[in-house]
Amino acid sequence: MEADWGSALAEPDLKDLTSTSFGYVIAFLLPGLVFFYGLGLWYPTVFPFLRSNGNTEVTIGPSVIFLLACLAAGLLIAAIRWFIYERIVCRRQKFGDNHFMRLSQSDKLPLFKAVVDEHYRYHQFYGSMSIALIPVFVYLILSAARSQSYVRVWITALAILLAEGFLGFTARDCYCKYIDRGNKIISGVPEDTPQNV
Asked: How far apart are CA 106 and CA 74, in angstroms?
């Protein structure tokens, strides 16, 4: 039995295109940018364009290369995020059998795309940020240890642990909602059925 891809391949409207583009930016580009910012704290001579030096002359070439490098770093971070969150932390959260086959054989694909945009992209962002911020957090702790009292070092470390915990919890929550709502779309749970939000 062949799936009807005609409706899935139709021209996307501007809202879908904007939502999808925003999802990719927060899922891949921003974590890569934050990771390079963290590396720039450690190696300021390698990434001199991350620091403002008053030079207003900007060329497009280095900016494009930097954005591509951020995208590549974001994709590598996404692989680490996938392993940590989807294979270890949320290993019990799964789609039902033949989920994607059943999705392609129905008119539920637009609903599922909305779930991806509303939950999975945010899971990717929060999970990837919990990894991308590690160089920044280590730099903050070590710089506080060099110049501050031990109380400030412990306060900084505690704040960082809370931030990491919050990002991890939020990433897990978004992933669980993505799986739960994706399964409900396929199983056909009516709209008026109470859901855990």
From this structure: 33
Of 135, 116, 124, residue with least CA distance to 90: 124
Give me the amino acid identity at 185: I
Tell me the per-residue pLDDT of 30-83, one tens digit each, with 9 for 90 and over: 999 999 989 888 888 776 665 655 566 667 777 888 889 999 999 999 999 999
Cα separation, 175 vs 70, in Å, equals 24
CB 46 within 8 A of CB 39: yes
In terms of Cα–Cα distance, which of 106, 93, 120, 80 is closest to 185? 106
Residue ranges of the chain with per-residue pLDDT less than 70 = 1-17, 47-58, 189-197
The rounded distance, in Å, linking the Cα atoms of 142 and 135 is: 11
Predicted pLDDT at 1: 44
- The Cα 54–Cα 36 span in angstroms is 21
| Angle at alpha carbon of residue 12, lines to 8 and 18, rounded to 5° | 130
- What is the residue extent of each domain of the chain? 14-187
- To the question of pTM greater than 0.85 for the whole model, the response is no
